Amino acid sequence: MWFDSHCHLHICEQESSLADLIGRAEAAGVHSLITLGTDVASSRRAVAIAHDHGVYAGVGVHPNDADTWSDEAAAAIEGLLSDERVAAVGETGLDFYREEVPADLQRVAFCAHVEMSKRHDKALVIHTRNSVLEVLDMLDSEGAPERLVFHCWSGDGAALRRALTLGAYVSFAGNVSFRSAVDLRAAVALMPGDRLLIETDSPYLAPEPRRGRPNEPANVVHVGRAVADALGVGPEDIARATADNAAALFGLQGTG
Ligand SMILES: [Zn+2]
Fold it and tell me: How far apart are CA 77 and CA 80, in angstroms?
């Protein structure tokens, strides 16, 4: 039984019905997932999807949408955090690859998410792109929340050690299956078994053998197989460990 620790069903549902997406996930053995909002409207949608389909939601404003951050947005996100199906604050972080949103706006929004994660004792879901060292520096100086995850990991070994020292979980996405991703598979090999997560980041970044197509939660099985191959263990071991780790990270009682 697999757990997809990061997807965006509010985007996936533009291509495929939620009933189909979740039906295919269940048929593939994916028993639970977290769908993350990327702004206020999609965070509300994520919560509604979580209630309608028995999954979990994360609420937050993505760094690429941080120009929509405001007192009103903060209040709206904070209001959603008391919902019983909301298991995470995010997706948040810093993205210095795309330069559409000024870095200072991203920093303000990210700091506010870190504070909300601590105040509500919900896991923090962090996006980094060309920014992992600054994110680590900020968490070192502000203090990391008790439960946090770096999603779609792409940093080097030194950054990975710093993330683990902060107590973070680290999640690997479909790019770990790409033939060229030697460094990512080396990072997987450095992971303690109790901190490892897998995700699809649907609808982005479909793993081999689905690369280039819209991604969906059913494909977390392929991510898990790539991770299992990198570690020389069976996929069922990765399924069990990553589902247990997701339950611990997101504070879920059981994983139904
Ligand atoms: Zn994402």
Answer: 5
Kindly give the distance from the C-alpha atom of residue 8 to the centroid of ligand 1, in angstroms, as a whole number: 7
The low-confidence residues of the chain, meaning pLDDT below 70, are: 254-256
Contact 36, 6 (CB under 8 A): yes
- pLDDT tens column, 32-81: 999 999 999 999 999 999 999 999 999 999 999 999 999 999 999 999 99
Where residue 218 sits, what CATH number does that domain have?
3.20.20.140
Q: From CA 151, how far away is CA 171, in angstroms rounded?
A: 5
Whole-prediction pTM: 0.97
**In contact, 176 and 191? CB cutoff 8 Å:** no
* 255 part of a folded domain: no
The predicted pLDDT at position 99 comes to 79
End-to-end CA distance of the chain: 11
Are the C-beta atoms of residues 160 and 132 closer than 8 Å to each other?
Answer: no
Residue 256 falls within a domain, yes or no? no
Q: What is the span of the domain harbouring residue 10?
A: 2-250
Domain annotation covers residue 79: yes
CA atoms of 217 and 256, how far apart (whole Å): 16
Q: What is the CA(48)–ligand 1 centre distance, in A?
A: 18
Closest CA to 123 of 61, 71, 81, 62: 81
3: CA distance to ligand 1 center in Å? 15
Q: Domain count of the chain?
A: 1
- Tell me the angle at which helices 220-231 and 182-189 cross, rounded to the nearest 10 degrees: 70
* Contact partners, residue 182, CB within 8 Å, separation at least 6: none
Q: How far, in Å, from the CA of 233 to the mean position of ligand 1?
A: 27
Q: How far is the CA of 36 from the centre of ligand 1 (A)?
A: 7
